Amino acid sequence: MRKMSLTSLFVFCMFVVSGVQAESIHFSFANFQITGSAAKYVEFDVMAYAGNLGTRLGDSQVYFNYDIGKFGQSIAAHSKITVSKGELVKGELASGLPAYNIINVIDNSTSRVAITLGYNFSGSPDYANPLLDTPAQILHIKIETVSEPAPSDISFDAALMAGQEYESDNIKKYVPVKTYDAITAAVNTESNLTPEGYYLYQNYPNPFNPETEIRYSVPKENFVVLSVYNQLGQKIASLVKERKSAGIYTVKWNGMDDDGNSLSSGVYLIKMVSHDYVGFQKVTLLR
Q: 191, 188, 217, 193: which is closest to 204 by C-alpha?
């Protein structure tokens, strides 16, 4: 029987390990907007998605840099930043047992923040939330400003995030970690950007009252239908029903049906149909 040399054995083991390596994970910003009256804030979402379907999200660390001229220094230490969980990491395994927690929000430097998100049940990886192959909101961030910033004043620190993103067993890492700094603004205007695919984004704010904004993308000219359904599957409002050229669009919904009646508090379903794409997002109306 032919013996395997130590070098060959090492190469073989590396091949096996690489064969079980996790999928890639991608991070982007979205929904940049200026809010507030007396004090001004910037709000935006951190979005995440996988290179391929089939994985569930575990522990994650997000690092982003900011312009100290627009936000000041050490914004975490000075309580200038608020971070909340996005739709991707909400939910409970049982009553009072959230699947994910924001572990800490700290200053990694005077112009960089580190946010640690933890999956609480790595011993039960199949109960974690699946990481989609389209962008989903993982964090919502609100920062008090010194002067009005632009989207370019915020950027991921990809080098620090590499090796810090885990699948739900908190052992396998997502490799590679890719980040995209361009932020889409949450405004009621049409974007000149040409998106890569059809997509219905999570509305913002959510829950909402009295109105919310719904963003969707169309990669090429096509007919778009955007509708609201109740929990019985009945269509109650038509938001878009027209042909759209390629672009990213935002439409507002005021929580009313097509007859102008105010709807009661509850969960509703937004449905987008265009070409061969059908997308859904749950929205929560609070009266």
A: 188
Paired tokens of 57? 């999200």
Domains defined along the chain, listed by start: 24-185 (2.60.40.680), 199-285 (2.60.40.4070)
How far is the C-alpha of 68 from the C-alpha of 230, rounded, in Å? Answer: 45
pLDDT digits (tens, 9 = 90+) for 49-108: 888 888 999 999 999 999 999 999 999 999 999 999 998 998 888 888 999 999 999 999
Strand runs labelled E in the chain: 25-35, 41-50, 60-66, 81-85, 92-94, 97-98, 100-109, 112-119, 136-144, 154-156, 177-185, 199-200, 212-218, 222-229, 235-244, 247-253, 266-274, 277-285
* pTM score, whole prediction: 0.62
Tell me how crowded residue 12 is: count the other CB atoms within 10 A of its CB. Answer: 11
